[in-house]
Each structure stands twice: as structure tokens, then as C-alpha cells.
Amino acid sequence: MILLRTIILCALALSLPATAHAQMGEGAPHVTATSYTVQSEVLGGERIVTVRLPAGYEEQPDMRFPVIYLLDGGPEQDFDHIAGIVQSRDMNWSFERFILVGVQSTNRRHFFAPPAADPQPYVEALGAEPGGSPTYRRFLREELMPMVNAQFRTDGHDAVIGESLAALFIVETLLEDPTLFDDYMAISPSMWWEQMKYGREAARMLAAHPNDGMQRRLYLTVANEGVWHREGTERLVDALRAGAPANLLWTFVPVEDSETHGSIFHPMALDAFRTLYGTAEREFPARPLIGGTFDRELTAEEEVLVEQECTREESLRTTPGAVEQGRERLQFKCVLLDLGPTPREGNLGD
Question: Is the pTM of this model over 0.85?
Fold first, then answer.
């Protein structure tokens, strides 16, 4: 009888229609940026330029923002993952807001490459004739940057970031044409170029920098590349150490123990943003709910501290580890934290 009942129940179950899975409904695109097609007479063709506006751009119509130009910044190139880093700022407030402009690269081995005494070895090895970097700087200065300034609320502070050959373009631009940008972020630049030319000749080029009173900054990092890639970078650092212009602040953050040439861009772009544009924060005491002991009303002096705005200039520069060693002395004070890897040397933050 039990067996017959089981057979009947199984038959009924097989005869019933399968329950439909829950549906997600109609989807909608998640838009984080806008791409524009730019016609360039200088480059002789079109480029895709992708712009991410900072949070609050529409809600604060009187506010202007700095601009960071991302080389190799096409939608199919480095734009999305760098834009993700920029968006993280809206969650953790660890660096200032800015407009991100991703510039699609086409024939990058020509346009990012400085001139070469003998271009043939590069043509054979890289499949493109070098020497297009002066033309690319003209495109940025004469076409793209004026276009961005006309269309968006920029504040006149311009920066550039790129990796590998794009970072070599950035180093070359700093040395040859330093007035183009205010901040230069060179992630693992190809300093092997022309037998380390931009390391060997950096001292001479730095000595020729204009004494125009305009402060510029360089963020420089390198992974575990070795050979002329690292040797050329060290020669550049030697020149900076010995004779950086008074108006050039710089930092060198090597990460050869933790990153490779293929992995360095994403983590060190975050470090560059936090280093150059880090925001100050207030140190609050821990309440009993999380194991702290602070459980009283604020004193008049503490009330004054809390009312003060935290700015980079007025904050104590320190590290998360130093804060952890004695939080009580910092209660309600503003701190500017050195997050991320420790720089090996430089004068940025002195």
C-alpha cells in the first residue's frame, strides 16, 4: 500500500507543470560616463573621448573641478577600471573630486613614443615608427584641453596619468614641455627608451625648467621590470634627488616586491590619486558600542575643534599606523593620512 501511494504521488508530481523561476524583470543600463567622438586635425582622424563627471557636478552648478587626463583611456582600454577607482572616492572620501577624461589611443606606439635617432629597430620590434609624441602634445594643448575647458566646469588644474609607454610620454612631457600639466602621474614608464635617454639626460632637462612660479608635481612608480626599465627610472630619480626645480614636488614609490608590469596600474593609480589629492579627515574617539571608552559630552574646546573645517593645509600629516599607536592625543583633530605603499624618497609632503 505504501509503495502504491508513493508511485501515485510521483506520477502526480511528474504530471504537474514545472514551477517557473522568478524573473529579474526588464534591465536598465548602468551609465557611469559619456563618450564623445572628437575630430582631430592635428592627429588626422577621430578619437573617442570618455568623460566621467564627479558626484555632485549637476547639484553644485557653481563648483569647478580639476581634470585628470587618462592616456589609453578608451572605453575598451583603461577607462572602466580607472573610473571604478574614481567612483570609490564617493564611498570612502579618501581623495578629492575631479573630472576624469579618458582619451582613446590609436597607434599608441607612434603617438606616445618620443623621436628616436634610428627608428628602424623600433619599427621592427614594435611595428610602428616612433616620434609622434610632439604631435600628440599639440593635440592635447591645441584641441582637446580647450574643448574640455569650454564644455565642462574646470578649475584650471590639469593632470595626466598613464602606464608603460604612455607613462614614458608623461615623463618626456614633464622634461621637455613641463607647462602642459600641473600634475604628472607616471606608472612604470618605459625608461629603457633610447638606451635610457630620459634618465641619462634628466638632469640637463630639469635644469632648463621654467622658473615661472607654478608648482608642479610628479608621482613616479615602478614594478619589478629590471634591466634598463628600472635603471632608467633610477637615473631619473638620481636627477630629481640632486636637482629637482624648486617648483617641482615629486615622490618615488617603487613596488617591485608586490607588483609586475602587468599588475601595477590599478593599485598604483589609486595610490597616486590619494597621494596627490588626498582629503583630510577628523579623528573621533571610539564609543563603548565598539569597545571604546569615550562616553561623555564634548568639552567647549572639543566643540571648537569639531566645528573647524578639515583642510589639507591645516591637518596633521601622519599614517594609519601612527594614529593607531595613540588615538587619544588626536581626538577631534584633523589628520591627512599617508595611505598605501610607503614612498622610497622625494620631497612631496615635506
Answer: yes
